[in-house]
Amino acid sequence: MSLLEGITGPRDLDGLSTRELDELAAEIRRFLVTEVSKTGGHLGPNLGVVELTIAMHRVFDSPRDAIVFDTGHQSYVHKLLTGRQDFSALRQRGGLAGYPQRDESEHDIVESSHASSSLSWADGISRAFTMTGQADRHVVAVVGDGALTGGMTWEALNNITDDNSRNLVIIVNDNGRSYAPTIGGMAHFLSDIRTRRSYRDLRVKSERFFGLFGAPGRAFYRGVRGGTHGFLSRFTNNEALYSNLDIKYIGPVHGHDLEALEHALRQARDYGAPVIVHAITEKGHGYEPALADVADQFHAVGQIDPETGEPLETASRPSWTSVFADEILALAERNPRLVGITAAMLRPTGLHRLAERYPDRVLDVGIAEQHAVASAAGLAFGGLHPVVALYATFVNRAFDQVLMDVALHRAGVTLVLDRAGVTGPDGPSHHGMWDLALLQIVPNIRIAAPRDATRLREELAEAVTVEDGPTALRFSKGSVGSEHEAERRTDDGVDVLREAAHRDVLLVAVGPMCDLALDVAQRLAAQGIGATVVDPRWVVPVPAGVVRLAADHRLVVTIEDGVRVGGIGTRIRQDLRDAGVDTAVTELGLPDEFLPHATRGQILESVGLTAQRIAQDVVSQVLGSKIPVARPLPDDVPASERARSE
């Protein structure tokens, strides 16, 4: 049995020797490469925290001592050390989640994978321990250097240092990267520490000096180094950043030296007040393909060859992100007023190509979505048209800025929301399912949902011409779907994808749900029910063409991959009522629940968004209702379409 197989919980680490701990770290890296290459997942971040996680679990007593991971994508090693070693279905239905999850283990506390919130959690937990007489319990927050670019982190630090009577340890996992290389003044400060000659030279020289005395000298050096902080903090002024915050600083600590890490963490544990431990790690440590990947060091991978790191399969169609990346560059070449903004997601959101061509026209603000959007309002005031590219799940964090800084000031800002709707394996905090319900209540906003690559290009080009208020463009994760040309387009831009001989049902599809709606229409036709399928293109505000078409049908069915409560279907129902249209409306979408990790198809099936299920429900409504008989085609339908229908 391997050492890893013998670890069923953190206390199994206590009896291991230094040699065995090093061997365990090597086993864990081999395990991660082998298993994650089969399923995909966050490989690079976890390879970088192997020793740090081992040391943390040897020094602290989880779950009595609360461990909080910021974002949590680097928690795979934590899962292994807390008895979860079946990675065969990682991020798949029924398997381990890619982030901490409470129903998996009592060792998991915070499930949200949105960055920069861990210190607020840690502040609250440590205060609760103190207020309830549990002063012997510790709280450990593991926060990446990228998370320090988020303003919420500094709000938490301000409050943490207001009360020094708590057992709170903040581990800064400093690898110089968030998703990609970390940006900003904080990054420059930490980089200066990592690369300062005095730090590197003194560390090497001190280690060599004590090594001259053989085993006793090396043992003494291990006792004082704490990752060399005992010597080096006196020479590198590392405490300068934190001195005004009145918080103890230990570091920098070599993040792949188990003994150094343990020494520093024990000092922090015994200090009796909030402490920052600065550990310098290497993302992708020990795996050459990850280290050679300059862009993101295998932050997140699909299925790969474990030997080479090469992907096992390539998509037959381009991704939504790549289509956007090409089009925003093409638009920027024609319009010098276009600038891009992102929040530590330059490559994942597709702004990297624009940045490569026009580096001065792309701003990466770090993990600070609120700042990104408010700053965009300022850029618009200054005469530019900013395009803010975020994951749809992260626009939730900037809602106030969209509402009060952009919309209230009628600023011409375009939001591009990647990974909208059901994203799949990353679980509840990454599904981009709230954007439509949230954003449509913003006054004067215009929201587009392209159904295919052609419409993405078209609608993005339209969005960046709007200068009197916010626009938003949302699209899915993964490859673009099939191209669907419209049979006709109304005078206000609604695409009619299929027009039936009898106007029984109007299917209003939002973005990529057009594929599903067309399948439903075909099934209804086989039952003798005529179904018209439309893509509004711009779903907010509701186009008048949708209202007119709804008035000519017996039933309206809206299909969206956003939360149904307060979604586009609700908006259409309200607009029909305001217009005096009494056509019945059925709103289909996602339930107001936190959806687990699974494939997109599995999740849509579980919530009833399949062609068979929808068609069955519509048939029962139409045939079992007292809705009036089908109405004839109106006069504005072109003669060619009328002839085809008849």
Describe the fold and architecture.
With 646 residues, the chain is of the alpha/beta class. Helices cover 39% and strands 14% of the residues. The strands form three sheets. A seven-stranded mixed sheet has the order 7-6-8-9-11-10-16, sandwiched between helices. Strands 12-13-15-14-17-18 form a six-stranded mixed sheet, with helices on both faces. Strands 1-2-3-5-4 form a five-stranded parallel sheet, with helices on both faces. Strand 17, helix 22 and strand 18 form a beta-alpha-beta unit. The longest helix has 22 residues. It is globular, with a radius of gyration of 28 Å. The relative contact order is 0.08.
SSE arrangement:
Blueprint: H1 18-39, H2 44-47, H3 50-59, E1 66-69, H4 76-81, H5 118-131, E2 139-144, H6 151-160, E3 168-174, H7 185-195, H8 197-211, H9 214-225, H10 229-236, H11 240-243, E4 248-254, H12 258-271, E5 275-280, H13 288-292, H14 320-334, E6 338-342, H15 352-357, E7 362-364, H16 369-381, E8 385-391, H17 399-407, E9 414-418, H18 435-439, E10 446-448, H19 453-463, E11 471-474, E12 488-489, E13 495-498, E14 505-509, H20 514-526, E15 531-535, E16 538-540, H21 544-551, E17 555-563, H22 568-578, E18 584-590, H23 600-606, H24 611-623, H25 639-645
Parallel strand pairs: 1-2, 2-3, 3-5, 4-5, 6-7, 6-8, 8-9, 9-11, 10-11, 14-15, 14-17, 17-18
Antiparallel strand pairs: 10-16, 12-13, 13-15
